[in-house]
């Protein structure tokens, strides 16, 4: 779904910069992806210098990286509040609405982002778009038994839902919740994404969408000459 190797240096600088937001005593939500991997690495480096935090992670990938970095993890099941959550994105619009789910982890990412007092996006500049859904299809997580129903209902909403296929496994990607990921392309982009989100979540067996609307307080963006902090345009 995405190229994780592109813009790696911008992602690295962005992940390092985002770690400046983290202070001792915080409980931190940790997203998923190649940009977040650099954030985790930097937190691990700072912990060796005395930073004391607890974290909860959105995926096996991030849990493994946190463990390797020496970051103590708390099971999200036992948390309802976080000081901050930091996560990557696949598209970000000027209002800091985002598409996520390139790594098939968006359901847990949304749970963790929703617990956090502050939700911060981190990405390289290629993720900035004038309008969501311009270049990245919308990921949704769907229970296997709801596959055909979901595809039919999505078609009625004007979308074409493709089952995300695994790369080094035969058959579909299976999410960490045991579900399929459908990537939806729209012939013409729906005007009201909030309404689209509600209509999609109304489909029985559709667990979560990759639309993160009005959730991010700020984004840290790796640009060619600098790492910029941006806020939602009103
Ligand atoms: C995973 C995600 C990722 O945060 C998103 O795909 C961005 O990843 P990367 O930093 O590797 O470009 O939503 O579900």
Proportion of strand residues: 25-35%
Strand order of the largest sheet: 2-1-3-6-12-13
Number of strands: 13
H/E series: HEHEHEEEHEEHEEHEEEE
How many structural domains does the protein architecture include? 2
Tell me which ligands are bound.
Answer: ribulose-5-phosphate
What's the pLDDT, averaged over the residues? Answer: 97
Largest sheet: 6 strands, mixed
Broad shape: globular
- What share of residues is helical? 25-40%
Can you identify the CATH class of the largest domain? Answer: Alpha Beta
Number of helical runs? 6
Structural class: alpha/beta
CATH T-level topology of the largest domain? Rossmann fold
Which stretches are poorly predicted, pLDDT < 50 over at least 5 residues?
A: none
**CATH-scheme architecture of the largest domain:** 3-Layer(aba) Sandwich
Estimated radius of gyration: 17 Å
- Termini separation comes to 31 Å
Q: Explain this structure to me?
A:
There is one protein chain. The protein has 234 residues and is α/β, with parallel strands linked by helices. The chain folds into two domains: 4-129 and 213-230, Rossmann fold (3-Layer(aba) Sandwich), CATH 3.40.50.1360; 138-207, 2-Layer Sandwich (Alpha-Beta Plaits), CATH 3.30.70.260. Helices cover 28% and strands 25% of the residues. It contains six helices and 13 strands. It has helices at 8-18, 34-48, 60-69, 106-115, 147-156, 193-201, and strands at 27-30, 54-57, 82-87, 91-92, 98-99, 116-124, 138-142, 159-163, 180-186, 206-209, 211-212, 218-222, 227-230. The strands form three sheets. It has a six-stranded mixed beta sheet. The chain has a four-stranded antiparallel beta sheet with strand order 8-9-7-10. Strand 12 (218-222) and strand 13 (227-230) form a beta hairpin. Helix 2 (34-48) runs parallel beside helix 3 (60-69). The two termini are 31 Å apart. Ribulose-5-phosphate binds at residues 2, 4, 31-35, 87-90, 100-106, 109.
């Amino acid at each position: 779904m995405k190229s994780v190797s592109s813009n790696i240096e911008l992602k690295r600088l962005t992940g390092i910069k985002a770690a400046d937001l983290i202070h001792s005593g915080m409980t931190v939500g940790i997203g998923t992806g190649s940009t977040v991997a650099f954030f985790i690495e930097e937190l691990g480096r700072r912990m060796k210098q005395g930073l004391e935090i607890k974290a909860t992670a959105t995926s096996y990938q991030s849990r493994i990286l946190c463990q390797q970095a020496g970051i103590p993890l708390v099971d999200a099941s036992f948390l309802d509040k976080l000081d901050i959550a930091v996560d990557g994105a696949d598209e970000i619009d000027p209002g800091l609405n985002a598409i996520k789910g390139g790594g098939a982890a968006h359901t847990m990412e949304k749970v963790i982002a929703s617990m956090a007092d502050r939700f911060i996006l981190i990405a390289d500049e290629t993720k900035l778009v004038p309008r969501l859904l311009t270049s990245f299809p919308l990921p949704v997580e769907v229970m296997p038994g709801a596959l055909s129903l979901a595809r039919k209902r999505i078609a009625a909403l004007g979308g074409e839902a493709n089952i995300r296929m695994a790369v080094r496994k035969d058959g579909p990607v299976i999410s960490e919740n045991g579900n399929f990921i459908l990537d939806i392309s729209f012939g013409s982009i729906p005007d009201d994404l909030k309404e689209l989100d509600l209509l999609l979540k109304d489909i029985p067996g559709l667990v979560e969408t990759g639309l993160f609307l009005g959730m991010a307080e700020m984004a840290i963006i790796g640009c060619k000459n600098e790492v910029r902090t941006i806020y939602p345009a009103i």
